[in-house]
Design brief:
This protein is mostly beta strands. Helices cover about 5% and strands about 35% of the residues. The protein has a four-stranded antiparallel β-sheet. β4 (about 145-150) and β5 (about 155) form a beta hairpin. Mean pLDDT is about 90; it is low at about 1-45.
Amino acid sequence: MGLSWSRRSFVRSLSSTALVLSLEDVLAMAGPVALPGSPQSSAPTAPQIGSRPTYDTKPGPAPKGAASPITGTPLGVSFLDVARQSGLNAKTIYGGEHKNKFLLETTGCGVAFYDYDNDDWLDIFLVNGSRLEGFPKGQEPVSHLFKNNRDGTFTDVTQKAGLARSGWGQGCCVGDYDNDGWNDLFVSYYGQNVLYRNNGNGTFTDVTQRAGLMQSGSRLRWNSGCAFLDYDRDGHLDLFVANYIDFDIKTAPLPEAAGCAYKGIQVACGPPGLEGGKNILYHNNGDGTFTDVSKKAGMWDTIGTYALSVSVSDIDNDGWPDIYVANDSTAATFYQNQKDGTFKDVAIEAGIAYSPDGKPQAGMGVSIGDFNRDGQLDIVKTNFAGDTDSLYLNLGDGTFEDHTYLSGLGVNTRYLGWGVGFFDMDNDGWLDILISNGHVYPEVDGTAIDAPYAQHKYLYRNLRNGQFEEVTSQGGPGINDAASARGCAFGDFDNDGDIDVVVNCVNSLPQLLRCDSTTGRNWIKIRVVGTKSNRAGIGARISITTVTNDKPFIQIDEVRSGGSYYSQNDLRIHFGLDHAVKADVVEIRWPSGTVDTLKTLDANHLYVIQEGGKILKTMAMGAGKP
């Protein structure tokens, strides 16, 4: 009877991408769908365990677009790594420095811009890892919490806060799971995850067992990215935890035994040929405990596996939060909220599962934002070395177009991307992109076969015409210094009105990229406090309207837990206002369905707004600097 609806949608979505498919490619895609684990006579033989594919995607410039008003103008911002002088002196330990036996040693850790003490100055939480050989008792690496001293420096308060835990730390995310007004911290591990309840006095309590989040079974889980979300909109934050690989060090293949190689170099095996992990959804019971609802919610009914990072947003504009997952070496996952406690993976139908030519990519990090200001949330995803990163344009009808090449992100294929963010670096009201890079295999150092292990960032400026201009070389030393980057988070740590970036690096000190701006542009920040909705306001959508010459300029964003690669951005939502001196209209659509509208809010202030429209706090901050 011809193609199934989903197969037809897949081919239709690919036909609208930036690349043209050959007849052979189209015919191949029109064949029977091979479900995971099912044989297909025309399919190639299963890959040898651990034989990671190599990518040879050709870079290409964007086609000529509409004229941009900022082409050739100075960037106006520069990023400087101030980690050392600010007191971020904790080295992240993660796997062997020059050779890795197992994939476990390669993924690295996330980081959070996290205002744990509610003073509206961003503190920093850095997840830490371990090594195969272990450490003497008392000398194990631990994750670190740094308190913001409000003067550009930080103090390590890890021990006092009760957060000194060792192990193979992975990601982190923040949310107020018990609605007590203090945001709590969740940290994922290879092994047992941890939920820390914020006591509101600078200390935390490990409530993992009490909350029902202990993981049973004989094998350790490899938990990866995480996010709090209120998927059923009952006012209580639920928890999504991605899982990477069903991995056991005792039985995992060694590179020399399995012949695992990357471009002729012996490297750690995986992920292809290894069994993928199963993602977890925990429902908040409203009494401080959670229930695992993964199976009945549809978490395991996906095409892709090997989940790494996650971002949550109302991607289809139906008022319910959806979940997008970047998967390594397989199709990405788009869990569409079915509004009945279940989700359906529609990544293929939506056109956000594969590359433009229909091939799986090795997804690492993900960010969501409206880069072209059309009121639809778009997706940027980082991928493996030899491939482009991905940019998907939301068409507003449940489908996306791959705009990687059309937008200008196809110019780079050499580096391996991890942390990523849509952010307005120059406060012009248009979202730019920063990508943190670093190779996965330390063994490439000293060879000519690939880019080095430590790599510089990519920085892309929004040209306001649907395209981006790579401005890495103009971004300052913080962008161009090589680092073995993994997770990165975005937020304004010095409250001067521009967005800074903190980066967690493998076997190195972190980076704190302070944005120094000379644009003189204005901005506004919104922090939300839910009442009927969850207290942290996660899932609230904020729109800002400024009017210039009688022309409205509208921006949207959402309050999100998790994102980037294994990381947590500032929960305060930042909007660049260009040269507007006020936000004419601020609209907040809460998860409860409540809509608040506020008018004429002055620029260069933080506003703390409670559900119902009451302004709880106004805080003037550093204005745009001439």
